[in-house]
Amino acid sequence: MALFDTDIKKLEEIARQLRCDVIEMLLEAKSGHSAGPLGMADVFTALYFGGILNVDPKNPFWEDRDRLILSNGHICPIHYAALARAGFFPVEELKTLRKFGSRLQGHPHRGSLAGIENSSGPVSYGSSIAVGMAYAAKIDKKKWQVYCIAGDGEQQEGNTWEAAMFAGKHKLDNLTFLMDRNNIQIDGFTEDVMPLEPLKTKYEAFGWHVLEVDGHNICEIINACQHAKSIYEEPVMIICHTIPGKGVDFMEWKPEWHGKSPNKEEAMEALKQLRTLKGRIASEAE
Amino acid sequence: MLNPEAKLNPKIFSSDIERKPTRDGYGEGLVLAGKENPNVVALCTDLSDSTRSAMFQKVFPERFIECGIAEQNMIGLAAGMALAGKIPFISTYAVFCPGMNWGQLRVSILQNNANVKITGAHAGVSVGPDGMSHQALEDIAITRCLPGLVVLAPADTIETRKATLAAARYVGPVYLRFAREKTPIFTTEETPFEIGKALVLRQGKDVAIIGCGPLLYNALEAAEELSKEGIEAMVINNHSIKPMDEKTIIEATQKCGAVVTVEDHQIMGGMGSVVAEILSQNYPVPIEFVGVRDRFGESGEPNELIEAFGMGKNAIKEAVKKVMNRKK
User: Fold this and answer.
1) What pLDDT is attached to residue A286?
2) In degrees rounded to 5, what are phi and psi of residue A49?
3) Is A111 close to B41, i.e. CB distance below 8 A?
4) Domain limits of chain A?
5) Which of A205, B4, B128, B263 is buried most, with the most CB atoms less than 10 Å from its CB?
6) Interface predicted TM-score of the whole assembly (ipTM), two decimals
7) pLDDT tens digits along B53-107
8) Would you call A279 helix, strand, or coil by DSSP?
9) Catalytic residue at B190?
10) Chain B residues with CB inside 8 Å of A131's CB?
11) Which residue among B75, B103, B113 places its CB closest to the CB of A111?
12) DSSP strand E in B54-180: where?
């Protein structure tokens, strides 16, 4: 699909809305993860609103839909926000995140909510599920694609590389991973905790085609996903370079915001920054 | 006397009773399941011959998936394939699966309710000379505690074949354990098998011996010898550890008033623990447990280990006498 500046503007507006949703959800929930969901807002916007994922909110279990697997379940607030804004469930339900009886579990649960393809939480498990789905689709000669969102911290798990090895061996070209390369994990910066680089070379050595994008440039993300579909006989890893906490200055690049939710005051400041593009435009909401 | 409805092998106590490993029954059952349903696939981690999944590979090469030595990935792959409509059977030694990938079993299989059949080969001390690292004595404990998982421990090769087919037909996750060594084939094609239904193998009134797996044969031998001493032991094949047949167990206990459980597994958290949970809430009676007593295994011939760890025919007889004394 050809993208025009006006389309990109609309998509950026959606991403801004999703970030606001995330802050409001986390404020209401009083716990949860801030940095990852904010950092991945543009990637989720590209997938759900940029013409990449072939899904139908009115028919969420349609057999030939594309599958989106979340391997880093803790960033689910942004997934929930994207699903709600895409029409999978009412937007008002976002406020029930992490509450008793909610379909929006603290970490996603398959079966609770339409659009959630896998239960997840312990990082890296989703990578194997995505690979297994892609393999099954190959056996049955299905045309649907499997997308998997994975974190960078989970690249420290052995399970991740077992899955990568299998996908490489079987040349699963119906499989596209998008890695949130935000450089932080709970205990600090990834390269201090346990160095991951060179990630591109590592995946290439495992038989993958690797692309790298600015994870906040929606146009670039869409183009990379389109490019991935054209890759033959190799699984594709799109390393999305993102800023953790993107859009809220006191959260950006701060590992301490990995697993923390904002208090009332912080949330108000965050929403103000998001609505005014950090003061660059006048807020409509004030 | 033996329960005629169990239709056991007429040559049950003859010295030349045929012996085959329960894992053979798994391989045969897997092939039958594959013929019955084209969605059945088999995954293995570099142990296709030992686990007998090679029998499936031979018939359905395009539906056999070699995962390499990567148990964590295998269980996740199976979850993904199940969510895409396949019925994966995954096989390796029980010490590796569920021993090495319990987290993935818990989240990727069970919290997704993925229709995967997990099989644990070389369970119990049956792997003998390989020693403690390879003897799975804890697999029942770590699987029965997981919500939504069916846990089966069949007694001989014919029953393992039936259990494999039953697992394939059942919609939902199943864990099935089987063993390496040749053990007596004491059931027949006609012996009933149903998930969640225990089977009385021998009628009795003085004590109920509730067992699972190949050790049930030792229990039947013990019961025969006890009969000559005037003790009539009921013997129950309790292959379905979850869901467990509470009705049959409670009725047997009401009749006999004392229970001995028998399994090739740790006593802690094993099949006997489930029996004790049921009886303590419904019909408390004295119980003795035959199994491994909070220790790891060691190298030796399987029968040697069964005797050394107090799980053989004589140990079962002693447990019966002890529990009957407590009954008085």
Assistant:
1) 43
2) -120, -5
3) no
4) 5-276
5) B263
6) 0.94
7) 999 999 999 999 999 999 999 999 999 999 999 999 999 999 999 999 999 999 9
8) coil
9) no
10) 73, 76-77, 80
11) B113
12) 64-66, 87-93, 117-121, 150-152, 174-177
Give this prediction's pTM. Answer: 0.95
pLDDT(A91) > 60: yes
**Contact map slice: B 45-104 vs A, CB within 8 A:** 62-63, 65, 67-68, 70, 72-73, 75-86, 103-104
Through-space distance between the first and last CA atoms of chain A, rounded to whole angstroms: 36
Which two structure tokens, joined as six digits, stand for B310? Answer: 């107090």
Contact A125, B104 (CB under 8 A): yes
How close B65 gets to chain A, by Cα (Å)?
Answer: 10
- State residue A119 phi and psi, 5-degree precision: -70, 135
What is the number of CB-based contacts under 8 A between chain A and chain B?
Answer: 101
As given in the structure block, the two tokens for residue B186 are 């004491």
The DSSP bridge partners found for residue B120 are B92, B177
- Asked if B108 lies within 8 A of A129 by C-beta distance, the reply is yes
Specify the amino acid at residue B324.
M
CA distance A67 to B170: 26
Does A139 sit within 8 Å of B41, measured CB to CB? Answer: yes
CATH T-level assignment (fold) for domain A5-276? Rossmann fold (3.40.50)
- Catalytic position from the list B28, B71, B221, B263: B71
* Domains and their CATH numbers in chain B: 4-16+191-327 (3.40.50.920), 19-184 (3.40.50.970)
Identify the three-state secondary structure at position B92.
strand
Say if residue A144's pLDDT is above 50.
Answer: yes
**Shortest CA gap A24–chain B (Å):** 28
Quick check: B237 and B209 in contact, CB under 8 A?
Answer: no
Q: Is B259 left (phi over 0), alpha (psi -120 to 50) or beta?
A: beta
